[in-house]
Design a protein that fits this description.
This protein has 3 helices and 8 strands; from the N terminus they run E-E-H-E-E-E-E-H-E-E-H. It is an alpha/beta fold. It has one domain: Hypothetical Protein Aq_1857, Chain: A (Sandwich), CATH 2.60.300.
Length: 134
């Protein structure tokens, strides 16, 4: 388990988010559960992040913040590094913000990359190609 007090922060969790996570963990039936950060590739927005109360897997990346255990699949570590998790009670919902440019784009994946537009569907459109080539 990594203590974020001794290394650069991988994720930052606001006090509001910590309070809500701790509240929800007390309601969870598994006292050994931690918080799993899910990363799902989305065709239109890059990545979608979600939280789930779950047990750690042996090969997960693990970190503890204020006695809250967070874990995620190691293959997504580049995409969660720099993430800030907040909680908005007015919605109520967790909010994920990440200024890390790695999380926006997965070169080689067949998903649209909103910041670099690697997969322009128009290149297979004959009308688009004829307009470019004239």
């Amino acid at each position: 388990m990594i203590n974020l007090g001794t290394v650069d922060k991988v994720i930052d969790v606001t006090q509001e988010a910590k309070t809500e996570i701790k509240r929800q963990l007390t309601l969870h039936s598994d006292p050994d559960a931690g918080v799993r950060i899910h990363v799902v590739m989305d065709r239109y927005s890059g990545f979608v992040f979600d939280l789930e109360f779950d047990s750690e897997e042996e090969d997960d990346f693990k970190v503890s913040i204020d006695n809250i255990r967070f874990h995620a699949n190691k293959m997504y570590l580049d995409y969660i590094t720099g993430m800030k998790i907040d909680f908005d009670a007015a919605i109520p919902s967790f909010i994920f913000k990440n200024e890390n440019p790695n999380y926006n784009c997965v070169p080689g994946a067949k998903f649209e990359c909103p910041t670099c537009n690697l997969y322009d569907d128009r290149k297979n459109d004959p009308a688009y190609n004829s307009a470019i080539n004239t």
